[in-house]
Amino acid sequence: MADVFGTGEFLYNHVPDWEKLPDGMTFKECPGVAVDSRDNVYVLTRGEHPIIVFDQEGNFIRTFGEGHFSANRTHGLYIAHDDSLLVADDGLHTIQKFGPEGDKLMEIGERNHPAPAWSGQAFNRPTSAAIMPSNGDVYISDGYGNSRIHVYSGSGDYKFSWGSPGIDAGQFIRPHNIAVDSDDKVYVVDREAHRIQIFDARGNFLNMWNNIHRPDSMVLWQDHIYVGELNGMGGVDEAPGLGHRVTIYDLEGNRVCMFGSPEEGEGPGQFIAPHGIAVDSKGDVYVSEVSFTIRGSKMDPPKVLRSFSKYARQW
3-class secondary structure for 264-293? Predict the structure, then answer.
């Protein structure tokens, strides 16, 4: 009998070898993943093919994005209510929008021209973006060289920003991922502060959920939020029980499920560096990881490690 992971109503089986990549094609590593309205799975990679698309069974459909991104810094992937995709590239300092077939629709930011670090100006190594369904505005977490959230219209015109470096409510250390719910609430994972902050559409602080270890990624699905937690920080990056796991919260911030071994690894129920997370219509969970950056690149010789996994939910 296959191992079961999770707790309570959220129980999962690992699906081994789910993705069926063509011969010679690799992920290298996967900073993001998203699922569209037809349960097609879009995997953002740092390999030769930036976005690889599969059906729900893991059959390869197509790739796109070649030539549009920096070599190693594709960062965040988001899919909107109309199946359009936003991709953050913190190497180019831009957000690009694509249709589901791979046609490029828009780019926000001046590529290869970062704003001065910590200036609050857009952008310096943005991490993620999301669209507010009620009006089409684009909310962008500008997270490595800024501690800021920027808002643009659906046509790419700047509107307003909020946030500054700090630990108080409404401040950020590293806003790493962003999501918007059906009530126009904006959720921001503040990774190095180990928390999720919640705002209204204008950036007014509403609430804060603490004690989430380095939340890297987040997706809203029905009435829950699924979070990927990264491993430990410098000096304790190999300590057991610090991150490399998936947690699920209700919309009040109560944790209802957690799974992931205290020890990092490539086996069922283990993770190395969760960086993206998605859920399909069946409630199955897809976890993408930056395993090469976090661990494989530091090996002698460097080694490409597993960076993608699927967990099928039991009902």
Answer: CCCCCCCCCCEEEEEECCCCCEEEEECHHH
Pair (218, 196) in one structural domain: no
Q: Helix, strand or coil for residue 296?
A: helix
Question: Hey, which residues does 187 pair with through a beta bridge?
Answer: 179, 198
**What span, in angstroms and rounded, lies between the C-alpha atoms of 25 and 168?**
45
Q: How many residues does the chain have?
A: 315
β-strands 148-152, 158-162 pairing? antiparallel
Give tens-digit pLDDT for 36-81. Answer: 999 999 999 999 999 999 999 999 999 999 999 998 999 999 999 9
- Give residue-wise pLDDT tens across range 133-186: 999 999 999 999 999 999 999 999 999 999 999 999 999 999 999 999 999 999
CA angle 188, 193, 194 (to 5 degrees): 80
Q: Please give the model's pTM, rounded to 2 decimal places.
A: 0.97
Last residue of one domain, picked from the residues 176, 201, 226 = 201
Token representation of residue 269 = 């129920």
In a 3-state reduction of DSSP, which class is residue 297? helix
